[in-house]
Amino acid sequence: MIKSDIPQFIEVDEKVLRKKCSDKLLVWMPTALFKIVGCSKDYFMTDCLIAPTIKSSLARLLLTRKVNRKIKLQINPPMINAKIYNHIACDPDAFIKDLKSLYDSVVSKHEEEGGWSQYIEPSRLAFAHVISPIKWILGPMENLKGALSKSVLRSMIQDMLHALCIDRDDVGISEWIKAYVLIAIDEENEQTYLVMGKKIIESNVYARFIFRTPEIRNIIIG
Questions:
Q1: pLDDT band of 201, cuts 50, 70, 90
Q2: What's the Cα-to-Cα distance from 109 to each of 151, 158, 219, rounded to whole Å?
Q3: pLDDT computed for residue 128 by the predictor
Q4: Closest Cα partner for 210 from 22, 27, 13, 57?
Q5: What rounded mean pLDDT belongs to the chain?
Q6: How far apart are CA 222 and CA 220, in angstroms?
Q7: Residues with Cβ < 8 Å from 201, sequence gap 6 or more?
Q8: Which sign, positive or negative, has the C-alpha torsion 18, 9, 33, 178?
Q9: Would you say residue 113 has pLDDT above 60?
Q10: What is the DSSP string of the chain?
Q11: What is the dihedral of CA 204, 183, 52, 45, to 10 degrees?
Q12: Distance (Å, rounded) from C-alpha 125 to C-alpha 108?
């Protein structure tokens, strides 16, 4: 396995940043870029702060997304005013263990108190357009009408885990690179954006955890 424990910074276009994010709070969020053996040629990015802080395997999954294969990294951050947070429990074994635990919980239909469904019950669908790691499995959820049963939500999570090959006994990581992704936070409208290269991507999942989870809000916003 190729593994890099010295975090690098996902490149951002400073002109785009100044133009579109000058009025937002900027933070470097700890993440990891990884590839899964025999599952996908794509790179994925996963959270290395929120999930381990709140001890949520579901957060691990929801804060995992596919990223462009041509994503660029740099050793030093650009000269911008953005706080840098430390990586927590950021290793491939912890990642696989968390998602295996979630998979077992979903498949067995057993859920401990405070488990995965608390974040996705219809009354808590604050992260209304979650995109799965392979986005065409779920697609945007903001257009869904009415209540979703727990069985439907369970099936969706299983599909997301299957896309990451977590249901395989021999699932493994071939590359694991610690990194930082720049997050632009609009405190007034409670929105968050991932800044990668010239792209600024709205992330309702990050917004859900930053603004709706007191422990994370206190860390990031204060």
A1: very high
A2: 9, 11, 33
A3: 34
A4: 27
A5: 83
A6: 6
A7: 193, 194, 195
A8: negative
A9: no
A10: -EEEEEEEEE-B-HHHHHHHHTTSEEEEEEEEEEEETTT-SSEEEEESSHHHHHT-HHHHHHT-EEE-TT--EESS--SS--EEPPP-S-SHHHHHHHHHHHHHHHHHT---TT-GGGGTSGGGTTSTT---SSHHHH---TT--S---HHHHHHHHHHHHHHTTTTSTT--EEEEEEEEEEEEEETTTTEEEEEEBTEEEE-HHHHHHHHH-HHHHHHHT-
A11: 80
A12: 23
- Tell me what the mean pLDDT of segment 94-123 comes to: 69
Q: Is the pLDDT of residue 47 over 50?
A: yes
SS3 per-residue string spanning 125-143: CCCCCCCCCCHHHHCCCCC
6: left (phi over 0), alpha (psi -120 to 50) or beta: beta
**pLDDT value, residue 146:** 47
Token pair listed for 12: 């951002």
* Residue 204 backbone phi and psi in degrees, to 5: -70, -20
Q: Give the CA angle between residues 80, 85, 88 to the nearest 5°.
A: 155
Q: Does the pLDDT of residue 121 top 60, yes or no?
A: no
